[in-house]
Batch of 3 targets.
Target 1
Amino acid sequence: MTLPFYIVDVFAEEKYAGNQLAVFLEAEGLNTEEMQKIAREINFAESTFITKIEPENNSAAIRIFTAEHEMQFAGHPVIGTSWVLMNKIVETNPRNFKLSVPIGEIPIQQTGDLVWLQAAQPRFLDIFAKSDILSFSNLTSADFEDKLPIQEVTTGSAFVIVPLSSIKALESVRFDLGEMNEWLQWHCKTNHRALYLYCFDKGELYSRMFCIENNQLVEDAGTGSASTCLQAFLLKYHSPEIKTINHQGDFINRPSRIYFDGELSGDNFDIKIGGKTQFIAKGEWEV
């Protein structure tokens, strides 16, 4: 059995940047264990498996896997897979699409070379003290943005949002693996446990995402699900309208550019993130 697959770079302004993604077609015959083994073999941040395509409805269903586990929602796989479907697979090249993931249906729109997703309504979970983060990092009290909380937020996958005061602090942050893992296991409310640190520098937004997989500290190049959580956080605490570009991956030589377009009206969060996708390769995978 062979599967067609594509490799793309997501949130990438040019090739060999952004976050890598493998997209496997005709995957409805695979079981969970087989998908997980393939994702572990290719070893990208995530791989997606298309289990159903309905060209007449401009819709498809996918499953998303890291090298370690299945995800309920993840932004860069949704955007990258949608780009492949709309530009390489569905003959009509639709500009609007619906992509179903385990948390539900995600509306997709392509405008020019940007693919946008509409995120689910956020949930704001626990607020943490600076001392929690200080206990497993090299940060000092002065490295945090005093006016904003440290809080876990989810739009499908949860992240602890950590506002920092400077790009120097963001660039130089280090963690103790064991202490960080223990803290995440003890405090995070969902099975997805990760930190998303950010700061503003000269009006520009910069961020870094860290999680632990296979007992290793992993930094992600461009995290769409974390960006939806960060956008929700900024709409709640910073400004009820936001249009900006989130710079991620700069410190690991995989620069990602994640476009924000959001608005808070009453209790409704209108959260959209977008990005460019670069085609890298296609081939056949022997199962």
Note: The longest helix spans residues 75-89.
Target 2
Amino acid sequence: MRSLFYGVVVLLFIVIADVQSIMFELQPSAKKCIKEEIQAQVLITGEYQVSEAPGQRVDYVVKDSKGHILSQKEDIPHDRNLKFSFVTENYDTLEICFTSHLPAHQRGMKQDILLITKHGIEAKNYEALGEAAKLKPIEVELKRLEDLSESIVQDFSRMRQREEEMRDTNEQTNSRVLYFSIFSMCCLLGLATWQIFYLRRFFRAKKLIE
């Protein structure tokens, strides 16, 4: 019971803190990508900012594992907070890439990239939803808690499904290992029997045994 409580607390913390912020350096004429696994039908929002570097251009693109472009912008303005948002269709691995472009005759410099991504309930603007639906603050908070509860239930359902898949995989692996072990033992017994008869014939031919 205590382990279940701890699991709920950890999962609740993960759902609430479902915000990722990262800052890295992008070398001139280089490309850097970040990958993340996302569930299906999830709202993804993000903000990014690129430091200034005269003469250099930075593009960004978000793709899924099949190469479909979900969000894209070329020649990102420097030192400006830009945003993107989209909804995923299937469970997939997203790839966010930033690419630096530099003229051949120019000496480049490193640029700082700030990327903040949110997904799930953290990506929703509940204040705007409350204003649009003319909800009271307590109603907005109840709506957020309802979405949070639904997200936790969905996460538990996915965890149970993954556990069942892992159990099926382990059972199939154990069965295959058992059959392979039996096959290997049969091969060894057959080889040992053949060696015994071969050696008996060899020693009889050499008249070492009768």
Note: Confidence is low (pLDDT under 50) at residues 1-17.
Target 3
Amino acid sequence: MARILVTSLPFAGHVGPTGALAAELVHRGHHVVAYTGRKYRDRFVAAGAQWLPWTRAQDFDDADLGATFPGLGDGKGLRGARANGDLILFGTASGQARDILAAAEREPFDLVVADQLGFGAGLAAEALAIPWASVAVTPLTMVSSRDLPPPGTPFPPGTGRLSRVRDALLRAAAGLAYRRLVDPRLNRIRAEVGLGRAALGAPDSLYSPRLLLAQGVPALEYPRTDLPGQVHFVGRLTPARRPDPAHQPPASRPDPPMPSPASRPDPAHRRPAWWSDLVAARTSGRPVVHITQGTLDVDLADLVRPAVAALAGAEALVVCTTGGVPPDTLGPLPENVRAAAFLPHDLLLPLVDVMVTNGGWGGVLAAVEHGVPLVVAGGSLDKPEVARRVARAGVGLDLRTGEPGRRRIRRAVATVLDGPEFRRRARALAAELAAAGGIPAAADLVEGLLTPRTGG
């Protein structure tokens, strides 16, 4: 079987899909090496992968980016987005490539599966002349199209003559800016890893030219007539469901392995003491609203606090997660509100009627997969793009800000709870996500890049 490198920036939202794919490739018999930060080492090791640490690339803790990158500030707005690119995405790319090249000198890789925003992995694969695949952890905002405005602009695709001209002018301006600002930086990194200059001119060049695994389905993207052939929609990348060994006949049940620190239950999977309140609400038909701000933008003042205040005293039971911030930071909670640092979506969402979120792509896909409609307050990075896609697909509302007021949140939640069309649409797209194949389909596509010599 093949020796496959799976790379992931050390962010929770990136490690989820890449970790699931690494586990599937291990299950299929491949030797998987996981290149990620120390914080997420055990996630991959527990799946059977070998860990390759970030050494030349500057490692970091996604829960405290300011400790490693003081210049990042609060990470909000255009300034925060630019600092994110300068310090993390481009700032670590050369080190990533050099780490991977050094590991390949010790023992070659047959294939690289790269986090789409881990730019160094693709450069290393190019330098090694081996095939590589990209795993999209966001919508396809960086795949340019003659049918869409460029990423980062606050417009939906034009439908009339004037708006289409607007989009064309914006694409031309974005292409010029990219060639002037990004191409020189990428070519400096290319030179550092022994690659020649390239006329890139568009962010598409940061994806694999052979395989891009797109999380989601076409209905959650804008329609386009020029989608590249290497793009394959694979639904939501989450661990494959396998038969429970406890259900096997006793004679065939293997002896259980001794637990290791990496394989012990994740504390996030422990049901909180108030879980029975949630089950009772669901059983009685009481609405359940979930509030989440993800694991990256965890300033609770942006969304969680105003959403809790907006829904205090409502009929609904409100369950909020703080993304790792201690729940008691919220102070005394209203009678109808429960809080936890983390709750796994696949455990919680079957009991939820509406999810209020800041627009992390992984969380949005999890909600849709469970047929749960959304209220999205996207304010930074790709999250406004996610919010627009949710509204366009009819699975929820876009609040058009990352810091909504209480009244706006309350009205939006009431609208979605009272609008059965949102849930019907979410359930329809849940079926489409399931049909896209998920992790097994993604692994099949990855194995399709292997040569007969390495096997698939």
Note: The first helix runs from residue 12 to 27.
